[in-house]
Amino acid sequence: MRWVGPAGRTKQQYLLLLRLVRLHEQLEAMGRNVSQLPNWAYGVALAHFYLASEDEERGGDGGKAGGKPSSAEAREEHAKKADRLLQSALLMFPSVLLHLLDKCSVEASDEVTKHKYFLEAHIG
Fold it and tell me: C-alpha angle with apex 35: 32 to 38, nearest 5 degrees?
């Protein structure tokens, strides 16, 4: 069975996104790092998150085949990278947080909604 993530995206689509980001960063074709764009910064973090979820759902034998990391190692690597990239995206683009929470119908705590960092970014 083929794993299909949210909105019908497949593992190959997430991997393609990550390859495009690496290629763009190497070539700097636009003279700007794509991670400086909010949609890319959050999208790459999300791709790693879904790849970690996909690996978890599929499981694996836990061994290494062809020098590749085991499924558990790959899952852990994607999860750690997703966390790190999401933190970075939130620091670079804090105004997105309240919009994301609103779209997900998540009520943020007062500590978040009244925090100077996120409040100024949301208003300004």
Answer: 110
